[in-house]
Write a structure and sequence with these properties.
heterodimer; A: 683 residues; mainly alpha; B: 479 residues
């Protein structure tokens, strides 16, 4: 049954990819939506099935077939559903379904074949993402890992007519290759060290090994390589630069791939290998520091960006940083919890921004917005809920998950990291409400802009600007989200409010069901049916009981920290309100006064420029100028001419050749022969 | 030791007879009559495949120098696949470009005979004969478009350099014979095993010279210089044939000579091959990135793939040896299909092989673009294609044998290589200036060959086990 979950969207992909250009928009959209909803239905059934099992045996496994079985190399195409996977598939198919539905309206201005192309990619993405989270070993995960990267690349560059879009696609691809490189090496290394790539077996083997405290042993190396892979996929320092550019893709894609699902793959991967990572505290510390640093850095950049989607993109990078912080301090449950709540409110925010952009026919600059509240009520209210949730205002979903991360960080003794996390929370509240106030409040600015249709070329592709729709583009009347879009917004808004209630901390009288639910996934034996040994070492109930028993001081500490973070969230919102609602001059004044800092942030710390200067250009030069033109053409033609002369002297035939390049080629060979024989004779 | 059995030569005999039949049919046809010579060739190749299947596990030996062990048979079947696909892709090309039909198919078949001989020869001299049968046919094929100066130049260059490398190879044989008193691989192996303690520099000279001869045929750096020129000058389908068939045959002989006869000296050649592998992977990949001509790009890509095969040779554990065979098959089908697409899209007057010619192919030829995408993903080693399995197998062999450096560089270069493969994909899907070129209609036979290749690429990516096991079995019988 598990195989059906990725199979449905894959069938949807096949239908739209082969017959899409002959299908009407309604039909190809319906096929895609039906595929993902069917997958969601199967996912729900499967999760209900494992929920009915005893806590320590919540595993469904399906060996689809033996993929490679040859000699000592054995790999099964196995899908495995455990509590962690359950959370992931529900997020992917649930939120994925909403975004598919939303897309039917958002992409409606595309021509039929482009519409089908879009949905075929989207379905294919969902299929690969589900393979990624359901895979029971690294290689199956890697199939999904590469597949989602490919789809993301294709979707970022979907509007390839825009140079910026195809550049962004290329950049996402190149940066991700760096991460994937480390990921493959990590996989190969694990395979040589452990002889298996099955997650459960790896966990069992690792749990019997000593924790690499203070030493950088095999597990540390492997996990570090895997984490570098995760920094690529999940946009962390130093490989985060592609994600903001990825906003060139259609907005629903940003919501699904670049906020809710794919970019969380790195976090998921660490959660999936929690046992391995907890045996490598050195790596975990690096994870925590990188996570915290990314969170802070992206938060500061988010503060000054003017493109509505870029603010959200940096916000995503920042929130992913918080998730990695949680993973790094060993609070795997908290990290996954935030992944899960973030999926709701960030998808909501992106879809809301999509509704704004849709209404304004491609305008993305918040300086040209303002006063949209009364024109786009549904979008406004849902966007507001999303912003409150991400800011961490009490009793919305983001509050519970972010609070848990901060609490765990503090509780584990990482006071500095906690401080960074707290500052990030403050920044989050501030930049989000800057966005809300500038977009929806105040006076309607650039009133002509929304009505210009394709006239306002801001360098951003959007469906409206490619094919102006006469029904949309006239009059100063702005349309709120059409029904399919509104549906997604409202459902996600409800989710953003309620999603956190499965993880209410004990300090607030809850039971943190999510933590208890996830706990077996982070233990060695939980996901390993038939693999003995681990069960005695890690009694299942222990984790759950541990979570139940909580001392009064801890409760007090948690309540205190909760108060602090609530104050931070509300303080951030108030600050944003003060600056951007009351005293707009302050913002300009500060930008002026701290001109250097403002420029630094506006230009994203010049990291892109740095990468271009230090990495990208040199590689380009080496490849084109040095190795090809230089080595293959020039060196051999030129520098070896001395040797060439010797060869040529011996051969009239060679000398008579017109180009001289054969002579050069022959001398290259000759040099090779001399080197090889020389090595043997005179070493 | 003399075996009167002819069994072991039956597969190549089938192909040779088919080649002769093709020649005869062309020679005696009346003017204006067309002969189904392509079909004749395919019949011969199928005969070779059937006889190979019948010879499986029998270790037949003919004349003491041709062995039909499973290793040879595996490569033979790979070559049969290469031959059939080449003929199928060629049929529209031959007609379109007005190539001499009989000559073309006969040369393809004769070179396959040479390749099969290289794969199954148990004697250095027979390997050399096979090598020359193959090479001379391929030199002519490279220049078969006599009206194209580029093709003629490429053929001439290839011929000169090939002769140059043959000389080294022959010289190596001479040294070996001088030392061991035999050219038979098993006897050389026995001789060298006894000598493995001695410090005889001449053995190393012989080894080095043979290495050069093979390195040329598999276009390993720094003996690769002919490759881009020859590949670019030859008709696309001949390039596809050369880059797969020649490479497969040369690798089979290379592996057999170095893993059996010169196995006792693996400590001597492994470091050199290590360096050659590294240089080949890096140069093939990095220079490939800078190419704007698809054929030239695939030429460099095929150089890089030779590097991955060398990794398997260096690793030379059980996994590595099986990996070479599997990779040869995987790469042959994939690369031939990619060149097949180029061949099918060319016209008599325009090769249409510049990268920009593929702009927007998805809009004009969606099926071809889709099939080409699968080929390119497989060349790049992305799952779930056969290219991924092949690379995974090669690199895990390298890591298993302790060659971490090779694995790291191999993974790095294959990661980079995806960049230029995907550039083509991007061109095909994400370009709105439809190319100005006019593509010819695609023939049914060509399309059938392409679809068959794609089925193999995906099937072996999803269900590789039976073929992996066959490869492992084949290699186990001899080394």
């Amino acid at each position: 049954m598990l195989a059906l979950i990725p199979l449905f969207p894959f069938i949807g992909f096949l239908i739209n990819a082969t017959m899409g250009r002959r299908l009407s928009k309604g039909l190809s959209g319906a096929v895609a939506c039906a595929a993902i909803i069917a997958s969601f239905a199967v996912a729900v059934m499967s999760v209900l099935q494992i929920a009915g099992m005893p806590a320590d045996a919540r595993v469904l496994e399906q060996v689809v077939y033996t993929w490679i079985a040859s000699g000592d190399l054995s790999l099964d195409m196995t899908f495995r559903l455990d509590p962690l996977g359950a959370v992931m598939i529900l997020v992917i198919t649930g939120i994925g379904s909403l975004i598919h539905i939303y897309s039917t309206a958002y992409m409606h201005d595309e021509i039929d074949s482009e519409f089908a192309r879009y949905f075929s990619y989207l379905n294919l993405f969902a299929a690969f993402m589900l393979v990624l989270v359901l895979g029971a070993n690294f290689v199956v995960m890697f199939v999904g890992w590469e597949g989602v990267g490919l789809c993301s690349y294709l979707l970022i560059g979907f509007w390839f007519k825009k140079q910026s879009a195809s550049d962004a696609g290329k950049k996402a691809f190149v940066v991700n290759r760096i991460g994937d490189y480390a990921f493959v090496l990590g996989m190969l290394f694990l395979f040589t060290q452990f002889g298996t790539l099955d997650f459960a077996r790896l966990a069992t083997i690792a749990s019997a090994m000593p924790v690499e405290e203070g030493v950088f042993g095999a597990i540390s190396i492997a996990t570090l390589l895997l984490f570098i892979g995760a920094t690529g996929k999940s946009a962390q320092i130093p490989l985060y630069t592609w994600l903001p550019d990825a906003m060139e893709g259609p907005t629903p894609v940003s919501a699904l791939i670049h906020a809710a699902t794919m970019v969380t793959a790195g976090v998921y991967m660490i959660g999936r290998n929690a046992v391995l990572f907890s045996h490598a505290p050195e790596t975990l510390f690096i994870v925590a520091v990188i996570g915290a640093a990314t969170a802070l850095m992206a938060g500061t950049i988010g503060l000054v960006q003017n493109d509505i989607k870029r603010v959200l993109a940096y916000s995503t990078v920042s929130q992913l940083g918080l998730m990695f912080l949680a993973m790094g301090v060993g609070a795997f449950g908290a990290g996954i919890f935030h992944l899960y709540t973030h999926a709701f409110f960030k998808a909501l925010l992106f879809l809301g921004s999509g509704a704004v952009i849709h209404a304004l026919h491609g305008e993305q600059d918040i300086r040209n917005m303002g006063g949209l509240k009364k024109f786009l009520p549904v979008t406004y209210w849902t966007f507001l809920i999303g912003s409150l949730a991400i800011a961490g205002v009490p009793f919305l979903s983001g509050f519970f998950s972010k609070d848990e991360i901060l609490y765990e960080t503090f509780h584990e003794g990482h006071t500095m990291l906690w401080l960074v996390g707290a500052i990030t929370s403050f920044l989050t509240a501030t930049y989000m409400f800057r966005l809300v106030f500038l977009t929806f409040h105040g006076e309607r600015k650039g009133s002509g802009i929304g009505d210009q249709g394709s006239g306002h070329d801001h360098g951003h592709a959007d469906p409206g600007s490619l094919i102006p729709d006469p029904g949309h583009a006239h009059g100063s009347h702005l349309h709120d989200a059409p029904p399919a879009m509104a549906l997604a917004l409202i459902v996600l808004a409800i989710g953003s409010v309620l999603a956190g209630y499965i993880g209410v901390p004990h300090a607030l009288g809850g039971h943190n069901q999510l933590a208890a639910w996830l706990a077996p996934s982070f233990q060695a034996s939980a996901a390993a049916p038939g693999v003995g040994g681990g069960a005695e070492l890690f009694p299942q109930a222990e984790a759950a009981e541990e979570a139940e028993v909580i001392s009064e001081e801890e409760a007090a500490l948690e309540l205190t920290l909760m108060g602090v973070s609530s104050a931070i969230a509300i303080g951030g919102i108030l600050l944003a309100a003060f600056i951007w609602l009351k005293r707009r001059s302050i913002a300009d004044g500060m930008a002026h006064r701290f001109g250097g800092l403002h420029r630094l942030l506006l230009n994203k710390y010049y990291v892109d420029e740095m990468y271009d200067a230090t990495v990208v250009n040199p590689i380009h030069v080496v490849s084109r100028d040095a190795l090809w033109r230089g080595f293959d053409v020039r060196v051999v033609d030129g520098a070896v001419n001395g040797t060439a002369a010797i060869v040529a002297a011996g051969s009239n035939l060679l000398r008579r050749l017109q180009t001289g390049s054969v002579r050069a080629y022959a001398s290259s060979m000759f040099v090779g022969v001399v080197v090889i024989l020389g090595y043997y004779l005179w070493r | 030791m003399f075996h009167s059995s002819f069994d072991a030569v039956v597969p190549m005999l089938c192909v040779a007879l088919a080649a002769l039949a093709v020649m005869g049919a062309e020679a005696f046809r009346s003017r204006g009559e067309t002969m189904p010579v392509g079909g004749l060739g395919i019949v011969g190749l199928i005969g070779a495949a059937v006889s190979s299947a019948l010879l499986w596990n029998r270790n037949a030996i003919s004349f003491g120098v041709i062995v039909a062990d499973n290793f040879a048979l595996f490569v033979t079947i790979t070559l049969v696949i290469v031959g059939i696909l080449t003929i199928m892709f060629s049929s529209p090309v031959v007609k379109r470009d007005g190539l001499p039909k009989g000559d073309f198919y006969a040369l393809i078949l004769f070179s396959i005979v040479g390749m099969m001989m290289m794969a199954s020869a148990n004697d250095l001299l027979v390997i050399f004969i096979g090598l020359e049968i193959m090479s001379i046919a391929v030199y002519v094929l490279t220049g078969i478009r006599r009206d194209d100066p580029r093709a003629t130049e490429a053929a001439f260059k290839y011929f000169l350099l090939g002769a140059f490398s043959s000389a080294f190879f022959l010289y190596g044989i001479a040294f070996t014979y001088g030392l061991a008193g035999t050219t038979r691989l098993d006897r050389i192996g026995a001789f060298l095993a006894a000598q493995s303690m001695s410090d005889n520099r001449l053995i190393l000279v012989a080894l080095g010279l043979l290495l050069v001869g093979f390195a040329f045929k598999i276009s390993a750096v720094p003996f690769h210089m002919w490759t881009p020129d020859a590949y670019e000058g030859a008709p696309a389908i001949v390039t596809g044939f050369m880059s797969t068939g020649v490479k497969a045959a040369a690798f089979a002989a290379f592996a057999r000579v170095f893993l059996s006869a010169f196995e006792p000296f693996s400590g001597e050649w492994a470091p050199i091959v290590w360096w050659i592998a590294v240089a080949t992977m890096i140069l093939g990949t990095v220079v490939g990135v800078a190419q704007s001509n698809l054929k030239r790009m695939l030429a460099y890509s095929s150089i890089a793939h030779g590097g991955y095969l060398l990794v398997g040779l260096v690793a030379a554990n059980q996994v590595g040896k099986a990996a070479i065979l599997f990779y040869l098959l995987a790469y042959a089908v994939t690369n031939l299909a990619a060149f097949g697409v180029i061949a099918l899209l060319g016209t008599k007057n325009a090769a249409n092989d510049e990268l920009r010619d593929y702009a927007g192919l998805w809009h004009s030829r969606p099926a071809l673009a889709g099939l080409m995408t699968v080929c390119l993903l497989s060349l790049g080693g992305l799952p779930p294609t056969v290219g991924f399995i092949g690379k995974w197998y090669i690199f895990s062999a390298a890591v298993g044998a302790g060659y971490y450096g090779l694995a790291i560089i191999g993974v790095l270069t294959s990661v980079i290589s995806v960049f230029f493969y995907l550039r083509v994909v991007v061109m095909m899907y994400m370009s709105d200036q439809p190319a100005t070129v006019v593509f010819p209609p695609v023939s049914t036979v060509g399309m059938a060959a392409l679809v068959a290749s794609i089925v193999v690429i995906l099937a072996l990516g999803i269900l590789p086990t039976p073929v992996l096991n066959l490869a492992a079995e084949s290699i186990a019988t001899i080394f």
